Fold this sequence. Notes:
The chain has about 100 residues and is mainly α. The chain has one domain: DNA polymerase, domain 1 (Orthogonal Bundle), CATH 1.10.150.130. The chain is about 70% helix and about 0% strand. The chain has 5 helices and no strands. The chain has helices at about 5-15, 20-35, 45-55, 60-80, 95. The N and C termini lie far apart (about 25 Å).
Amino acid sequence: MLSEIEQFQKWLRRRAPHSSTPIHYVSDLELFFHSSSKSIAEVTMQDVDDFIEQCQEKGHAIATINRRVAALCSLYRFLAMMSEDAPANPVRPRRHFI
């Protein structure tokens, strides 16, 4: 697991210790980064488009796809909150949420 994702997971657990969100978000992020084979800084909007398309081809529910995109968006927001030189968020809500 990428260290940024581990930090994000710890932050989520502190905010909502009894929620299942950290478990699901980390799983979603691992799926995304495994499928893209890119670092966090290299991810583009097209990579997000491709991931959504893969999820749709596999027959995943819209709610599942939206949660996966939300996890990715939240990770980049977390990184921006933690560092001024964080990578740009590749998720565009009007483009990527179904």
